Amino acid sequence: MRKKLKLIITLILTLSSSLFFAQNHEISGTITTETGIPLEFATILVKGSKTSTTSDALGKFKISSAVNNPTLIISLFGYQTREIVAKDHFVDIQLVLENNSLDEIVVVGSRNPKKSKLETAVPVDVVNLAKIRNTTPQTTTNDILTYLIPSFNSNRQSSADGTEHIDPASLRGLGPDQVLVLINGKRRHTTSLVNYQNTVGNGSVGTDLSAIPASAIKRIEVLRDGAAAQYGSDAIAGVINLVLKDNAGLEANATYGSTSRDDGQTTNLNLNYGTKIGNKGGFINFTGEFNDRQKTNRSQNHNLIIFDQSAQGNFFAYEYADDPAQSRQIDDNLLAQNGLKRDDFNFQIGDAKIQNIQGFFNASIPLNDQIEFYASGGVSHRKGTGYGFRRLPSETESVVASIFPFGFQPELNSVVTDLSSSFGFKFKFGEWKLDLSNTIGENKFVYDVSNTNNFSLGDASPTEFKAGNHSFLQNTVNADISRLYKDIFSGLNVAFGAEYRYEKYKIVPGEEASYMNGGAQSFPGFSPLNEVNEDRNSVGVYADVEADITDKFLVGIAGRYEDYTDFGNTINGKLSLRYKILDNLFVRGAISSGFRAPSLHQQYFNNIATDVVDGELLNSGIFRNDSEVAKQLGIPKLKEETSRNYSFGVVFSPTKQLHITADYYHIRIDNRIILTGNLGNDAYGEPVPELRNLFAQYGAQTGRFFTNAINTTTNGLDVVIDYDLNAGRGKLNLSLLYNYNNNQVDNQLNNIPSIFIGQEDVYYGPQERSLIESNTPKHKGTFAVNYNIAKWNFLLRNTYFGEVVRDGFPFGGIQRHNGKVVTDLTIAYKITPKLQFALGANNLFDVFPDKQIYENSYFGVFKYAPVQMGTTGAYYFGRMSFSL
User: Is-annotated flag, keyword Membrane (predicted)?
Assistant: First the structure.
């Protein structure tokens, strides 16, 4: 009986433990690298449940499962995610370093769905923004690319009207409108703003990268090669493709920073949430971002005007004297007694105040095994405040003394609204793929000018004016068909398709007081004479064939035909080759023709604005090419820019972790569209009576026009070296990036009207020429060290901005700004696996461009030119990042 009882108890205990184990199957193990180094903070998740844990400092973990032989998902930033079936109570798991970003499959550069960056015949940079954004000092897409892509440059501008509110950017020193921007492979619309204030990209119309929140971007692909034959107009310098996030989970980020001069304070808050839809890979991802950037002031003389009090108690204004001994000390008490302070008289020169609220989404929903619906889009609402030139009390033709007895500095307030939407269907018909899509976007720029007056209205003048607005809408319909033939040669990819694009450009007048009789000082409003409501459409067809003739030899051929209702048609082609000398060494190259259609903005933008002409503030007009004044002067009608692009490169990967690429390029652009200089004075700054009289009929003293005036040649070299390695218990990444870029404008101008023969330096002068040839660095390089160990991440990056040369003609001089090195430093610490805190600096050592020579500084006001690293100086920040 005792033996039977013992047996029964044993059976009960065994059954109980089995049942208990079935409910609480405990698994322990270790997580290490391939070389046996323990990995802390690796996430271990029981597949199909919410049960998860993390590894400790020795790489050890324990986790329970309600099922036998559970599948574990192991993930850690920087390593490939693994799935294993835990058949035993103990598992030993090794994680493999993620492939270098150079190995990622890319969308641009090749329509072959299997091609990685290292396999394309043309150079493509990949910036994995989702992984680096928490540690990089920069917060906007423009600023991030400036420090990560050596041939990319972007600078904030000062006292440049609307250009202050949308930073112009360039690739390979070419214009902002000579690089095509895509989102998820679909064409992005440009802004409605024309850069016309003699800044980088003068006369061009770019794409506003700041309208897309950086927190919504998964990665950025930069195709550094002419691609008009593949993607159409604007792709002369290359293509930037922004790939939106598609992840599930929650990410939140908060950044606050300030400059070393206690201005330019920035607050950036963003939230990203994604979730899966169905069980076939569907998802939807949302992003919201708020960014507030306060103004900076980098003027040479903050206290431009000083005050004294006469015996009668009246104020008199004195302009700032070059010799401090001749200046009178400002009496703060005296100012306070009259309700004033020093800041009321500062000359504000620096970054504009910007506030941006944005929302974006990205979605993909498989409807069945053959059909997938996708969509993306967003809204950006930006408010900006910039500053014009200060009007002194002595400028009696500008200042209504009863309103502004001490002069004034006008403020230009903008509201920029950007809307976009893209949706489509992807179909599978056997081995064929069809992508049908519609992409629409609109950019609207509304102007208000305040703290100013319309002198012609005298004492009755308002001090704030609604100055009008301009907008640009673009709608693109695409049909793309492709197929990969795996059995032809060593792989043959065929793609072809068609595109229809509609564009509309509008200028809407402001209120009458803003433009009448000279208009509001600094920014006269748009008048009914400036009103524009123009549109056009274009049709394009393309074919793109890429064949791996052998395992070593790749050939790509592309051709495109486009027809525009406003200027005609064009045909362009591209041939690209890649040959593998060894498995880890190959050469690549391409030759292509390209074009850029004149934008509607360049054809129809016109206004009257206050500009500096030969050191004097004058009303300068920009006139349409189809205007009466253009016809009288013989200004020719605009036509497309044409280009020829040649590139040759070498790719070498000595090890899996080390990649080296070097690519030479040559770009020839004919009939490049520029904005002329201010016509109305001769090369010596003296008025030309017949021109002054002609422009006076249209309310201006000088005039400017868009014209295909120049041909340019660009030669350059890009070098990218990227090395991943284990360093002790951590992971080290070293990267070296370098770009040499040389732009030259032909000496001979195209189609110059006979009236300007002998006036070439005014029609297209040294200042305009220097903006293309020498205003961006010929040499730019970055060396970055990123070290990740346990809970810590360290980023140290040095960026060299080479010498630039600015020509201040006609009222300034030639100045060389020496090359400078900017240092970025970030230290990040993971408080928990989901919470990280970072401290860091952009431009740690407070490096500025060389101070401007006096004659280039608008009489000592502009202390620094907005070149190279810009005029912000050191910027320090703190950031908290959370993920779930």
Answer: yes
